[in-house]
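FAQ
Q: What does a multi-component entry look like?
A: The components come first, one per line:
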Amino acid sequence: MNQLLLQYIDTLNIPERLKRSTKYSINAGGKRLRPILMRLTCEGLQGDCEKIYPAAVALEMIHTYSLIHDDLPAMDDDMYRRGKLTNHRQFDEATAILAGDGLLTNSFQVIASANVYNAEEKVYLINRLTEASGMEGMVGGQLLDMEAEQQEITIEQLEQIHRLKTGCLLSFAIDAGSYLAGANDKTRFILRQFAEYIGLIFQIQDDILDVVGDQHLMGKASGSDQGNSKSTYPSVLGLDGAISHKKSYVNKAKQCLEQAGLKGSRLEGLTDYLSERDL
Amino acid sequence: MNQLLLQYIDTLNIPERLKRSTKYSINAGGKRLRPILMRLTCEGLQGDCEKIYPAAVALEMIHTYSLIHDDLPAMDDDMYRRGKLTNHRQFDEATAILAGDGLLTNSFQVIASANVYNAEEKVYLINRLTEASGMEGMVGGQLLDMEAEQQEITIEQLEQIHRLKTGCLLSFAIDAGSYLAGANDKTRFILRQFAEYIGLIFQIQDDILDVVGDQHLMGKASGSDQGNSKSTYPSVLGLDGAISHKKSYVNKAKQCLEQAGLKGSRLEGLTDYLSERDL
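Then the predicted structure of the entire assembly, as tokens:
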């Protein structure tokens, strides 16, 4: 994935500073969770895994843009991300805004120009990806998240924010994986439910790590959510409540996998990893 | 166009503040130059003008997003646009960033979900639009523009910036119009040249108006480019030089129209309008 992402940027005829800035944030790494989810889904359903790459590259570009914009002073105002300076701290705000805009725009080009898809597949993927990342998805979630700061919100509102802000892209990863594997409608429906649980598990663990996590491992200050009075699962449910909430979602996610015939697949292992991860 | 744009936003299930913010910038108006160019091109070539609308809506959404982001404090730091407060002044910076991100993302959905296009047409339009608005197009141009501030640049560098920053989207408008009208390759090639000239005429007149324009008509402070030491055509060529430079492009643009069999078409009138407009 890293190579594919950097190769794509390198093929572009763009200003040097834009190239450095986008590659900087791509190189900042991350777990590549979304591409992994797409691949494991496709693999579990006996699909041709070569087909996932353009969609996975596009998805990771969108994820990267969203981190760059979320870190901006007007948003979360973060100085570090994964142990490195955030994009706007390493470069400047204007460059960070434009690097984000560029990654977002070009992500759709990666799909639209991919050789491995026919036109119908491209249109399907772009429709789903704009839905997941646009105003009815991630962008809307980020806005609700900003509005929720300094406010007391219910667990339902918190889940709605995370469903949009994080869940939609994770969901796209799994849906694209099952679509490209040619899965039937029933399996795809069940896996969309699985994706919902995965998103919530991911987010609850994120919030838990913010309370108990190892700052050195995570490369950012733990307790930073508390600092800016964000609502989190531990703040709404307490730490123990958050942990048991997460466990119930892990059970539900595994039930979905069983129904989709994916019990014992690598997706099951990934579910445990996401629930227990320490960074 | 205004109605179609607002209708699209209204169909979306999105946070209230995101709806108000995107509609605010859409309502701020603008000349709708890009949709008009697309329509006049399609009409001049005897195409079915109904086909342009989703592409024109998408294009205008991208144009609107680019204005919102360009006005941000980290970019041009503008307080007014078309006589109204800029988006981030009316709302706040976070909302403006997200409104821009949202308009950009959903613009591709407008094309990908349009009933009037088949899958191949959607893919063609999305490929061309991402090229025009992405890192190799408008976003790259905006970055070069930021870098050029406070610097002496040559007329060639200035034209390269405008070609990317403004020209690419105008060019998309004309290319999409001729593509959707089913024009032949030769005509489309000539009209792409026409589009280049139109972009430069548009920009030179913009720069001229910044020196001699009526602040009340334009709804922004004239002389604002001078204030932040931006390179402009008048600053590089002098006012008379800029005017004669513009006239030579008007002649070349009209030659293209003649070659494309569009002499006397409404595109010719638009060329004069763009060259002589006072806002």
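Q: Is there any commentary attached?
A: Sometimes. For this entry: The first helix of chain A runs from residue 2 to 11.
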